[in-house]
Amino acid sequence: MRAAVQHETGQDKLDVLDDVEAVGFGPGTVRIRLRAAGLCHSDLSAMNGVLPQPAPFVPGHEGAGEILDVGDGVTGLSPGDRVLMCWLPACGGCPSCKRGQTHLCLAGFMNAGTPNFKRPDGDVFGFAGTGTFAEEVVVAAHCAVPIPDDVPYDIAALIGCGVTTGLGAALNTAKVEAGSSVAVIGCGGVGISTIQGARASGAAQIVAVDPVASRREAALRFGATEAVAPDELADAKQRITGGEGFDYVFEVVGKSATARTAYETTRRGGTLCIVGAGAMDDFFQVNMFELFFDEKKILPSLYGGGDVVRSYERAIALWRAGRIDLENLITHRVPLAGINDALDQMRTGTSLRTCIEL
After folding, report:
1. 266: which strand partners?
2. 38: which strand partners?
3. pTM for the whole thing?
4. How high is the mean pLDDT in each 10-residue block of the chain (358 residues)?
5. CA 62/CA 82 separation, integer angstroms
């Protein structure tokens, strides 16, 4: 089968090869024929080494398709079922799951160290234990979540990560209140989904911040009340909040510099929500006096900060009701052979989400 492979960390291009085989099928697993995958910035972060990932590997963690086969002991799934990929499934039995914090379950991360592809010259890993830039993949059964027939594969793929992460940051983690003021720093696919979550929560002012003009324009279409370049944020803070700062500020870049800007843009007693995935050697600093005196809440949000399956269902319900727009998040479509074009679109900021059609 065909898959896009990165041979070594740091390479900026992927090789689309036809000698890759999905491996590991057996009890408790399913084989999925992928039909659509989304390109997320985390894929780029894994490629350049910001996020740890063994190589060689198949990037991609947003995907949807149909089940080809189920292993022994798998219940609730059958060949032909339409599913989306969950890259961080809950095991149900660990301490995090028992506390109700299923999004903190580490069972899925354990899969990342086991190759789930191979080529004639050796093993190949899948990013985050998945690897959706491939025609087929074998994963644990709880990574495959059934989707209703009315949800297209491309929409389902986005719900598998970016949409759930952004919506959840606003709805689950920050719990944006109606009538509040919000700033969102970083307006790619996840940032736009955060904006939509803030709008669904009833925020009165939503300021989108991004250096790319086309993304600022897109943010206005998806619910932002104003969109500014980074060097205009201080003026927006003064105009909109009288210099006090926003009730909620979301950092969706994954850099300490933008996190610091977000902290300074948050009002005293307000909430800074960290959504972007950053590097282990990039340190965010606050001094002990301001941490105590300003009483700003710093809330990291991993995968939307809630039960992911419930979050999927909520995203579908909001989409059906017309409360969120998912179709127009997909700004570009490419076949698997065009994966490097998709990477360039994300690097230059010309895309919100690119759908890889498989």
Report:
1. 246
2. 62, 355
3. 0.95
4. 96 96 96 97 92 94 98 97 95 90 83 89 94 97 96 97 97 98 97 98 98 96 98 98 98 97 98 95 96 97 94 97 96 96 92 94
5. 14
